[in-house]
Amino acid sequence: MAFDKLDKRIVRELYLDGRAQFSSISKKARVSKEVVQYRIKRLEERGYLSKVIPLVNFPLLEYSIYRVQIKFFSNVDYVDFFKKIKQTSWIVELSGKFDVVVLFWIKEQNEFFEIYKKIQSHFKDGLNKIVFNVVSSITYFAPNYLLDKKESKNYSLNSINDKIEINESQEKILKKLLENGRESVLQIAKELNFSATNVIYHIKKMIKERVILGFIPIINFEKLGFIHYKIVINLKDPSKISLLKEEISKSKNTIYITRSFGTYDLEFEFVCKNINELFVFMKSLNSKIAIKDYDIIFGNKEILVNEVV
Q: Both 233 and 131 in a single domain?
């Protein structure tokens, strides 16, 4: 059976609250709890849904987001290398100008430069091009390209002045949630030798203090027949960056918008059935805000997603 309207409704509810109980989702989807449980399991088994992740507000925990983009001279097995670096959070395979982009959550600047030197040393003469920048914000959008109606709830990670510390218990719970955002309180409590009450208290506290912004599903775009593009943009007038972001946000196909200190004014990620949809959107965008230049990066395949504390 293909991905249908009920699957879409369930994915929508998971985006609004990835830890919602089966009974809660069933009421909103108007089916039984057993059907919801079965459908979520089937989405996972068929590869439509890889997992649910917590969106951790790492800047609040005094982390900075460093991003490295690499082009190799030839095919290189880089996944295991980056997975072994504990600060690695996101690995995305690309096509075109770069082969891979890797995000790191860094406490101290020197940490990153040690990682950067390790990358240069490990791959040596295999590096064709390597660039890095510091990400200032990431906005996550609902999977509106799938939904019957546009969901306006977005989540944003921003570099902010406020800082907070989490205790050892919260850190352990957060690691468990990063492995599986829907893992039950009872299972987390059992694995960590905590009481269920203690786990519930700490999760609620982290949500209240906005350490955890929400829980969202990670969807396999390719499996659903969509192509995932990254578009990087420079404006003729950079002062219009907020207007650009607003216009990009209106598209149901936008899934991320990223601001960083570096080469480009803004970048966003866009999923669609064919590249003509993207060209039509870019033409419309340029008619509203003058774009100096832009590049399209193809073949975004997420290898590792948000798995570091």
A: yes
What is the torsional sign of CA 217, 222, 223, 225?
Answer: positive
Q: What is the pLDDT of residues 212-235, one digit of tens each?
A: 999 999 988 888 899 989 899 999
Shared domain for 244 and 117, answered yes or no, is yes
The residue segments making up the domain with residue 181 are 165-208
127 shares a domain with 69: yes
Q: What is the pLDDT of residue 249?
A: 94
Q: What's the predicted TM-score (pTM) here?
A: 0.85
Paired with 129 in beta bridges are 71
The answer to whether residue 306 sits within a structural domain is no
pLDDT single digits (tens) 115-135: 999 999 999 889 999 989 888
Q: What is the pLDDT of residue 193?
A: 96
